[in-house]
Amino acid sequence: MRTLVLNAGFEPLAVVSDRRALVLVMTQKATVVSADADHPVLGATIAYDRPSVIVLTRYVRIPHGRTIPVSRRGVLRRDAHHCAYCGRSATTIDHVQPRSRGGADSWENLVACCLKCNNLKSDRTPAEMGWVLRWTPKAPHGVGWVVRGVERPQREWDEFLAAA
Fold this sequence. Notes:
alpha+beta; 6 helices; endonuclease activity
């Protein structure tokens, strides 16, 4: 089970395990906003409702310039596991401007790619191959990328994620 953690201003921060959320509540660092009474957490002498949404009691400052780090998993997720050249299922990533020619490891230079297209392209640019990218690669944005763990949201979280 997972729990959505909200900042004191009710903006979503992260998703944590229900055990971590219960510890935050028991140490009075957070309060429960929404709980699942159907699946209680049993202690030695007491049963607690499993928290599904908690809010921190103190405001946590988050830098506004927070960028999403580039990763292989992130590029594949951003491109929905589709090859940027042929549209088939992608299992690898490719540098649009090859690293051997000064291409950087950035959201704008990396795309999901199938193994066949990756091997055919090698260290050439798409223009040299006569290929066209199906979409322009860019850095991802949105609450699903900024808040860790929101890839699979629960129904109880909708009202809090919609505000973000």
